[in-house]
UniProtKB/TrEMBL annotation:
GO MF, one example: catalytic activity
UniProt-recorded name of the protein: Endonuclease/exonuclease/phosphatase domain-containing protein
Pfam families, per the entry: Exo_endo_phos_2
Domain Endonuclease/exonuclease/phosphatase: 2-110
Organism lineage string: Eukaryota, Metazoa, Ecdysozoa, Arthropoda, Hexapoda
Length: 243
């Protein structure tokens, strides 16, 4: 797990040193406090740009739901993606990442699962989209293209074309983030979203005026939100069993 506090300058070399300290294989998940469109953020920050460069240079993979993970207490600030996972030397097709509905804090918890078998997804309808990292794509194509093959017969040419096509497809998919279409999207009810907004306002008030009364109010609304979410999950599970 990782927590990169906001406000601190983290250089490219800092990121490089951190990831190298994790060894030959790793899953580094947590709060990076870094924004970049590569993992679904709405904007690109300085830290996000530096982190993305470290990821690209080392051909790491990013696991992200593409959905907001941070819900600022300041209602004038928009929720965004700053929590995700970075993976090295592990089969990306064996991972599944989802959001948890436990909204007791201002961060949405993420659940990362690693399966012994590849996770089945609906195949992407396109090779690339706006998230495609073309530098990673170029590197993967160069690494996996075999130019030392004979082209003397029609069969040789056909096999070479098939191999190149596969290389291009796999490089494009490995360099692009696709939504997991086989998982049912859970729509959070309006009354829960309203409760979340109410909690954000109460928390913002407590952070400005840390009185015992405001703290008591925050604890009360936090407990109510937890109970509301728990009841909702219980009802959804009962409906699933009865269907």
């Amino acid at each position: 797990a990782i927590y990169a506090p906001p406000g601190q300058k983290i250089t490219l070399q800092n990121w490089q040193d951190h990831f190298q300290s994790l060894g030959d294989k790793f899953i580094s998940a947590g709060d990076y406090n870094a924004k970049h469109t590569t993992w679904g953020s709405k904007i690109i920050t300085t830290r996000g740009r530096t982190l993305e460069e470290a990821i690209r240079r080392n051909s790491y993979n990013v696991l992200s739901t593409g959905k907001p993970t941070h819900w600022p207490t300041d209602i004038n600030k928009k929720p965004d993606v700053i929590d995700f996972a970075i993976v090295k030397a592990l089969n990306i097709n064996k991972f599944n990442i989802t959001s948890s509905l436990d909204l007791s804090s201002d961060h949405t918890p993420l659940i990362v699962k690693y399966s012994s078998k590849p996770v089945c997804y609906n195949p992407p309808t396109t090779l690339c989209n706006k998230t495609t990292n073309w530098e990673t794509f170029k590197t993967l194509v160069e690494q996996n293209t075999n130019c030392n093959i004979p082209l003397k017969t029609p069969e040789d040419i056909e096999q070479a074309v098939a191999a190149l096509t596969t290389t291009i497809q796999e490089a494009a998919w490995a360099s692009t983030s696709f939504r997991q279409l086989n998982t049912q999207k859970r729509k959070i009810p309006t009354y829960i979203l309203d409760k979340i907004k109410e909690k954000r306002k109460v928390k913002a008030k407590w952070q400005k005026h840390k009185t015992s009364e405001n703290k008591k109010h925050l604890n009360k609304i936090t407990k109510e939100l937890k109970n509301t979410i728990r009841d909702y999950n219980d009802d959804e599970f009962k409906k699933f069993l009865e269907s």
